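Two entries, shown back to back:
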Amino acid sequence: MDRPYSRFTENEKAVFRSMYQDMPESDEPPFPEHGLRDILESLARLAGNGHINDEVSIYVTVDATGAATNVDLVEYADVDNAKAVAYVLVKAKYKPAKCGGEPCTMQWPFRVKLLPY
């Protein structure tokens, strides 16, 4: 959870790349700069502060500098929950994708099930 993409094993990288259609082995998808921990902890606090029970699917557009520039809300039951998740994801810093060895803009898919605790 707290590992950046650079510390993934080759098998883990291959599994993650498989979420992208026809991504060459030399390319890399974007990924949270320091891993998923900060994002997941923020979302856990969000879910714990209310009675959120929702599954949210979002595509985050990450530019060549690692900044989230756009979100596409794909699946959600409550738009306010989706916007809260999107806010957390937009505030995160990302490792940019690499296309042909160069930083590039690419979407990062994110899906989470929020449950109250």
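entry 2 starts here
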Amino acid sequence: MIKNLCLCVAALLWAGISYGQSAKRLFANTESIILKYKADCNKAWDAGNEKLANTYYDSINACIVGSYVGSHKFKTVDNKLITIAAQKPVMVTVSASWCAPCRAEIPALNKIVEEYKDKVDFVVLFWNDALRTKQLASLYSKSVFVVPSAIQVEGDESHKISIAGFNHFMGYPANYMINTSRKIVRYETGAQVATSFQGPDGKMVTITEEQADNFNYKRLKESVEFLLTNKGK
């Protein structure tokens, strides 16, 4: 379940070659290729081959970054409209109510939003319907555009959402950094959560909420700064 919903990586070892011949790659064209290799990725995890699975993930990242999205128009839970990269670069986050890392990322995201809201638009696309998403919207800064899904795909396909033509199919949370040319300049998945676990030496390791928040804040800040550095390229 974790590998399917939170990691959801797939193999695209030849992505650089197949896409390199195109002047402008479209994000909308990546899904069929990525899903073709997803079974091999799952086999790698099932076989305990973490190195190969991470190679698949790096290949997916290479496929997504550098591709272009359309001028998608999203309607928020309070009926506002936001268009991708209409005036400012945008950070699109995909989330779900049942995703613990998604919830853990919110405090750090809100801090980032207050720092960068004049320079970047922040959009959160939820797997959930309008009613549940409206309940969750109160957790976010008022400067965040919170968008519900019209259809919830469940079971093995619950890692997918499709809103206003923007299709995401690799789990939650994930962040797309999109510049004013509608180019995805950075893509990242996952977030740190407060937890305790047994380390390789047998000793217990504890990550506090404060440590998790600091880690998530640092990662998001780095990504937003990268977006602003590449906001029109």
